[in-house]
Amino acid sequence: MIEDFVVDVLKVSLALFIIVDPLGNVPIFIGLTEGMSLEQRRKAFQTATIVSLILLLVFALLGQQILEVFRISPQSFMIAGGLLLLVIAVKLLIFGGWEEKKTLPESVGAVPIATPLLVGPGAITTTIVMLQSSGLLVTLVSVLVIFFTIWLVLHFIERINRFLGTTGATVIARIMAIFIAAIGVGFIIDGVKYYFL
Predict the structure, then answer these.
(1) How far is 5 from 179, CA to CA, in rounded Å?
(2) Residue 82 buriedness (CB in 10 A; 0-12 / 13-18 / 19+)
(3) Which of 120, 118, 122 shows the shortest CA–CA distance to 83?
(4) HSE-up of residue 137 (Cα within 13 Å, Cβ side)
(5) Which tens digit of pLDDT belongs to each residue from 144-159?
(6) Of the residues 31, 39, 65, 142, which has the maximum number of CB atoms within 10 A of its CB?
(7) Measured between alpha carbons, how far is residue 188 from residues 15, 27, 182 in Å?
(8) How far is CA 92 from CA 82, 117, 122, 183, in A?
(9) pLDDT value at position 8?
(10) Model confidence over 26-73: pLDDT tens digits?
């Protein structure tokens, strides 16, 4: 039982990590906080971690209710979510990242770093779908694991950026995009199976 729980947590955590892709976004995070002092940058990343964690926890806890309010079946959401992940993957593969407008240093931690870069449509979709397929406890633990990982990445971001370089981060982002596409296809297949099998 415990082994199954650990395997499920690792599976969901890996899916979320691939979609959130903190390593591939490192150059974007650095660019968005360019010109800030070290203290301002740390505050921006702290805000980003807290805001994004709260957002995903809200969807993990209220995902079922959100679907019920809009009368959406889990299978329909899986298909729609899978298509959305495919679009995100194509965007990452073709354009190599997200295009975000400049924002004030005071708000950059919340927008665009927390959302949509860390918690965007893909992460929200994956959280709600995983809630349906893996259960509440697995999803909550996975969200906490992912955001501890994100905190580590943001805490050591300058060292990671120096180590990866622009080329390394780009390669990681493109590889992650392929995995995002594969996860999206899996969601679509699972949703379609319900209606046709």
Answers:
(1) 23
(2) buried
(3) 122
(4) 6
(5) 999 999 999 998 988 8
(6) 142
(7) 15, 31, 10
(8) 15, 12, 12, 15
(9) 93
(10) 877 887 787 788 888 888 999 999 999 999 899 888 877 887 888 888
DSSP structure class, residue 109: I
Alpha helices in the chain (DSSP H): 2-20, 26-32, 38-69, 74-95, 121-134, 136-155, 157-196
- The structure's pTM equals 0.75
Residue with tokens 């921006």: 44
Task: Delimit the domains of the chain by residue range.
Answer: 2-196
Give the 3-state secondary structure of residue 190: helix
Quick one: tokens of 89?
């993957």
User: Which pair of structure tokens corresponds to residue 123?
Assistant: 């992460």
Give the amino acid at 124. Answer: I
* Token pair belonging to 31: 């660019």
Neighbours of 62 (CB within 10 A): 14
